[in-house]
Specification:
The protein is an alpha/beta fold and 491 residues long. The chain has helices at residues 2-27, 50-62, 76-89, 91-96, 163-179, 200-211, 270-283, 292-301, 307-314, 316-327, 331-335, 373-384, 409-422, 472-490, and strands spanning 98-102, 106-111, 121-124, 149-150, 153-155, 187-191, 216-221, 226-227, 237-244, 246-255, 259-260, 340-347, 354-355, 358-367, 390-393, 426-431, 444-449, 454-455, 469-471. The structure holds zinc ion.
Length: 491
């Protein structure tokens, strides 16, 4: 009895200690990347005529800089029209900055700083837009290239992605130039021509900047935004992408003798071999882990998150498997935690009664920071084991970006301006798509991805989808963001 009693006491004591440790860590938790944004002196707001700015965004949306997989389908004159609009709409910005064309239609603007010892900052926005899916035009509340200003918004393809950034960036610079602002630090604007298809403009711009020895303090491009109903705290949250995933498509092919389907081989033929390989690859997923920018987001939110989340994040030594399970409950959450595998296209024989001679599957990967395309290939081969299939990249894979700092001066400036202009808490996160900023990595210390606009999770579908529109509230917020970012970083 006495021994049992002591044992029970020990167990209770151990439990009390465990609870005490968990609670102590919860209440004293500080995110690893926490920086004091109050140390940044954010420049004051500028005077913005939102209605006039909306008119200029409307004009930009009406110009159909639609980029296609086949460049022969593009209308190059539309890019020229957009260039002419920028030149006529923003005279003060054009008087202050040197303009050059690189690649075919990409633009580099340089606003020279008075102190050459300071590293420049680079702001990016692309000129091209994705097509409107044929047959969906009638689903738009306003015609997709009308640039209609209605219901408190500018409507049309590109009103957000990415003419929304381009126009508000120029509005911000125009306002500063008109005020007589002179940057101490050089400001470079890079506006690329074909972000949605090839990224050739971004590569040309990066090469030009590299040739002149530019090493920028930071780059800001599109990528993430202010989410108004984030799933962690339920409220607004300004997410800044500190990294983006890599992109690769693996073509898996099973070759077989083919022939008439009335006498199939005992193993079922190429289609069966291919199917087994695809299933094996898809089921041999990359392990999920609570690390990198996806984890950094939860860590920086933890102090303001509900108690259970705060406790779990402060005690990953105990709760990591639970956190991973929770985050991975949605596909978007799971994509933050690992490299994703998505079989997308399949090809067999051209006829229902013919066995395929080569059956192929295309598997699209989004590679998480820390993984590589070589690792993707290795994992696919391992999964397929002895199955008679071959592997080839559909096109050269893009590796994931490095992870940018969340303690650097660049981060502090960007985060402080984002917080001041949006009024939302700021957190780093991972961009699961790709942006042109990846090509600028060699010419900058840090690359960040942020559009200073509010979106509900349900709104995200309008980007590349139907009814893309920029609210006038977002328009004003974005102009202030770019103006105050430039004035703070370069002032
Ligand atoms: Zn875009």
């Amino acid at each position: 009895m006495r021994v049992l009693g002591r044992l029970a006491l020990l167990v209770i004591a151990a439990f009390v200690v465990l609870v005490a440790v968990v609670l102590f860590r919860t209440f004293t938790y500080k995110p690893p990347a926490e920086v004091d944004l109050a140390t940044v002196k954010v420049a004051p707001p500028v005077v913005v005529d939102v209605d006039a700015a909306a008119g200029r965004l409307s004009q930009a949306v009406q110009i159909q800089t639609v980029s296609h997989q086949d460049p022969a389908e593009d209308q190059p004159a539309e890019w020229d029209r957009l260039h002419a609009l920028l030149q006529s709409a923003y005279p003060a910005a054009h008087a202050a900055m040197r303009r050059e064309v690189v690649g075919t239609k990409s633009l580099i603007y340089t606003w020279p700083g008075s102190d050459p010892s300071l590293a420049p900052v680079i702001l990016m926005a692309h000129q091209d837009v994705v097509p409107v899916t044929p047959g969906t035009e009638k689903d738009w509340k306003q015609p997709p290239f009308s640039g209609a200003i209605a219901d408190g918004a500018v409507w049309g393809r590109g009103s957000i992605d990415d003419k929304g950034s381009l126009i508000t960036l120029f509005e911000g610079i125009e306002a500063l130039a008109k005020q007589g602002f002179h940057p101490r630090r050089t400001v470079i604007v890079v506006s690329t021509e074909d972000e949605e298809v090839r990224g050739s403009g971004a590569r040309a711009a990066a090469a030009a900047l590299q040739a002149r020895g530019v090493k920028a303090e930071f780059v800001v491009d599109e990528g993430l935004a202010v989410i108004t109903n984030n799933p962690v705290t339920g409220g607004r949250l300004a997410l800044i992408g500190t990294a983006e995933k890599g992109y690769a498509t693996l073509k898996v092919t099973a070759r077989a003798p083919g022939g008439h389907s009335s006498a199939p081989p005992n193993d079922g033929g190429g289609a069966v071999t291919l199917s087994k390989a695809v299933v094996a690859i898809a089921e041999h997923g990359f392990p999920m882990d609570f690390r990198g920018p996806g984890a950094a987001m939860l860590q920086s939110l933890a102090p303001t998150a509900p108690f259970a989340i705060r406790m779990a994040v402060a005690n990953t030594w105990l709760f990591k498997p639970m956190i991973v399970k929770q985050v991975a409950a949605t596909p978007a959450g799971a994509a933050l935690l690992h490299t994703t595998i998505a079989p997308t296209m399949l090809k067999g024989s051209p006829k229902e009664n013919v066995l395929p001679q080569d059956a192929s599957a295309w598997i699209n990967y989004r590679i998480a920071p820390g993984d590589t395309s070589a690792g993707v290939m290795r994992r696919a081969r391992d999964a397929a084991g002895p199955l008679a299939v071959t592997f080839a990249w559909e096109k050269p894979p893009a590796e994931p970006s490095p992870v940018s700092s969340t303690t650097s001066d660049g981060w502090k400036t960007l985060a402080a301006v984002a917080a001041a202009t949006t009024g939302a808490p700021v957190a780093p996160s991972l961009v699961t798509a790709g942006t042109d900023s990846r090509y600028l990595q060699p010419v900058a210390k840090d690359v960040y991805r942020f559009q200073p606009m509010d979106f509900g999770l349900a709104d995200i579908g309008m980007i590349h989808g139907t009814n893309e529109h920029m609210t006038l509230k977002n328009l004003g917020q974005a102009v202030q963001f770019y103006a105050r970012l430039v004035a703070t970083a370069a002032g």
